[in-house]
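ESCALATION

Customer reports they have been waiting on this structure for their group meeting. Please prioritize. Original submission:
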Amino acid sequence: MSASTSLKLRLPTFVLVLEVVMIALYGIFVTYDDNSNAKLQNNETDPMENSMYRDYPYFADIQVMIFLGFGCLLAFFRFYGFSGMVFNFLTATFAIQWAILIQGYFQFYSDGKIHLGVINLINAEFACAVVLISFGAVLGKTSPVQLLVMALLEIPIFAVTEWAVLKYLRINDAGGSILIHLFACYFGLGVTFVLYRPRLNKGHPKETTSYNSDILSVMGTLFLWVFWPSFNSALTFKGDDQHRAVLHTFLGLSSSTITAFALSAMFNKRGKITMADIQNVTLAGGVTVGASVDMMISPVAAYALGIMGCAACFFGYKYLTPFLAQRLRIQDQCGIHNLHGLTGLISSTAGICAILMATEDTYGPSMYQIFSHRAPPEGDPKLLELQKLIPGLKPGLGRTAQEQALFQVAAVFATIAAAAAGGLLTGLVMKLPFMASPSDENCFDDELFFNVPSDFDALSDYKITTLIAITLPYLPQ
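Update from on-call: job pushed to the front of the queue and completed.
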């Protein structure tokens, strides 16, 4: 390892500084919420009504997605399996710690404290997912120090964007298609635009997969697939809204999966199935139902959205990803623009259509609970009538369906703009010379940052003459 990429001082120093800051901030600002504070428990409280029992299953499911799903999925490169899984582990752990503070300030801050409970952890996991999606755009081309810096900067930018959109635009986005998938996608594209490496446009000798790495990656896909209904439904209203979210997510994932198999065989010259399609395209339906996942869109619409998302994702990988790399200087390593960007745009459009078509005939009085900003404002006689039917219904803004749809459109553009600008700025910071960025020839190689086992041999599958011919362009001139 050269001095420019050595982690001996960079990583321990950076982590130590982060930990000192974390200890100080947690000590000053973080306390327990009402459901985790022993002082508030007495003989009138029922331990089984604690929010822990309602929220923990979702927390556990999303934990599996974050650490096993993303971790295994990112281990598809033959010589980058350690880095894909372990850097995901490192980045996710820090991102959740940091998001508890940043997200907590905007959502759970009162009396000078952030009140910590399991629901905070779920919100922090969503913020962490944003970082890990963005990580996919720069996989194989960054150091762990750069990834920690990306998480350090992306979490606050995401939290501010989310707060501003929810506070001032007041949108519906139960599955996070706008605020999670679109934000993460365009933030990651902004970063990779700044970190553009022209010599990698034609590929790299170690940018390959293997039988075992592809199997491991598919395991990650299966973890994400199985637990995606929890991801989409975790923050929806309990009851029928959450029930619909689970149903729609499963239908969307199911239709996108079988469509992915069909398209993969159809567009393969030899009529065979491509593993990259199974690893990524099968998940598209989970994103495309996200913005409307808790709405009365009908099961057939969820099924159709899965097919549409799959098709967009598949053709994006086939045609759009090479175009972005060659013409727009965007080397999207994992194709996040296809799986999260294109599908996020489809999902946002579907959500807008669902809002425009929502009526009391379809939803009954609960329409004003699902679309809370369409509820009558304080003082409106209709609000009192609705509160008799739905106790606890809060006053809304009295928006029409058309007005709410326009705010949804505004949120899409605002989120993309904030994410892209934040990604460009973060990329500039990550490009600083002391960030231990790997050279072009050392990308996609575990040996740069890890003590690899004795049976790790990056050269074993290449004839020496072929290797020399491929590697020469990457050697220092």
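Sent to customer with the following note: Residues 10-39+50-448 form a domain with the Ammonium transporter fold fold (CATH 1.10.3430.10).
Escalation resolved.
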